[in-house]
Write a structure and sequence with these properties.
Helix content: 25-40%
Structural class: alpha/beta
Number of strands: 15
CATH superfamily of the largest domain: Response regulator
GO molecular function, one term: DNA binding
Keywords: Phosphoprotein
CATH class of the largest domain: Alpha Beta
InterPro entries: CheY-like_superfamily, LytR-like, LytTR_DNA-bd_dom, Sig_transdc_resp-reg_receiver
Shape: elongated
Strand order of the largest sheet: 2-1-3-4-5
Number of helices: 8
Protein name: Response regulator transcription factor
Distance between the termini: 49 Å
Order of helices and strands: EHEHEHEHEHHEEEEEHEEEEEH
CATH topology of the largest domain: Rossmann fold
Radius of gyration: 21 Å
Number of domains: 2
Strand content: 25-35%
C-alpha cells in the first residue's frame, strides 16, 4: 500500500512516518504540506491511502478531497481536532486519528485498509473470522452510530455497556444508543483495569462507581454516577473484591 502524508507540520509528518515503519505493508511515497502540493502529488504518485490533516494553510483536508478528480484514494484523517469526526465519516474516511497518534490506533486504522485492486470497488465480503483488533485505552475515542445519529466519544466517558435484545446499549452523557455488538466482542477490546464485567448483561466503567453495598447471597450492588444500579453476580462479586482489595 502506497501512502501519502499530508500535513503542514513537519514534526507531525516525521512522527507518523516513524510509526509507519512498524507496518512494512505500507510504504510512504511522498509528503505534502498543503492541499495544492498534495493535489499534484496525488495525480503524480497515485497513492492508495492518504494520511490527511484537516487544518492546513489555504484549503482544508475536506476541500482537497472535494477537488480530486477520478478515483479517490482511501483516507485516514490525522488531526488535533475531534469536532470534525462526523464529517470525516460522511466522506467515507476509513478512520479518524487524533494527534498524537498512538501505535495501537494506527494499527486499528490500517486493519481497515483494502488492497489497491479492491479499493475502488464495493467492500469485500466479511471474512468468516474477523482479525483481532488491538485493545483500546480509556483515553481513546470511538465512533458510535445508531440510525442517523452519530457520536465520537471517549471510552472514559462511557459508564456502562448493557445487553438490550440482540444489541448493546451504550451509556454516556444523556445518551443511550444501541450498537450491533455483543458484550464478548466489547470485552475483548476494553481495558480490564477500567472496565469490569459485572454480570452476563453489563460491563461497568470502574471510574464511574459512586457507591458499593452488600447485596443478597454475598453479592454486591454498585451505584454508578449518573447511571443505574448494577447487581454484580456472585462469581463476579468475588472477583471484584479480589481485584479491588489491597
Amino acid at each position: 500500500m502506497n501512502a501519502l502524508l499530508i500535513d503542514d507540520s513537519r514534526l507531525a509528518r516525521t512522527e507518523l512516518r516513524h510509526l509507519l515503519r512498524a507496518f512494512p505493508e505500507v510504504e510512504v511515497v511522498g509528503e505534502a504540506r498543503h492541499a495544492d502540493e498534495a493535489r499534484a502529488l496525488v495525480q503524480e504518485l497515485q497513492p492508495d491511502v492518504l494520511f490527511l490533516d484537516i487544518h492546513m494553510p489555504g484549503q482544508t483536508g475536506f476541500d482537497l478531497l472535494a477537488s480530486l478528480e477520478g478515483p479517490t484514494p482511501q483516507v485516514i484523517f490525522t488531526t488535533a481536532y475531534d469536532q470534525y469526526a462526523l464529517k470525516a465519516f460522511e466522506v467515507n474516511a476509513l478512520d479518524y486519528l487524533l494527534k498524537p497518534v498512538s501505535e495501537s490506533r494506527l494499527a486499528a486504522a490500517l486493519a481497515k485498509l483494502r488492497p489497491p485492486e479492491l479499493a475502488a470497488t464495493a467492500p469485500p465480503p466479511l471474512p468468516t473470522a474477523a482479525p483481532a483488533l488491538p485493545p483500546l485505552a480509556a483515553h481513546d475515542q470511538v465512533f458510535v452510530k445508531e440510525g442517523e445519529r452519530c457520536w465520537f466519544v471517549r471510552l472514559a466517558d462511557i459508564r456502562l455497556f448493557e445487553i438490550s435484545g440482540g444489541a448493546t446499549r451504550v451509556y454516556f452523557e444523556q445518551h443511550q444508543p444501541l450498537i450491533p455488538r455483543t458484550l464478548q466482542q466489547l470485552e475483548a477490546r476494553l481495558d480490564p483495569k477500567v472496565f469490569f464485567r459485572a454480570n452476563r448483561q453489563q460491563i461497568i466503567n470502574l471510574h464511574w462507581i459512586a457507591g458499593i453495598e452488600p447485596w443478597f447471597s454475598n453479592t454486591l450492588k454498585i451505584k454508578l454516577r449518573e447511571g443505574p444500579e448494577v447487581e454484580v453476580s456472585r462469581n463476579q462479586s468475588g472477583l471484584f473484591r479480589e481485584l479491588m482489595s489491597l
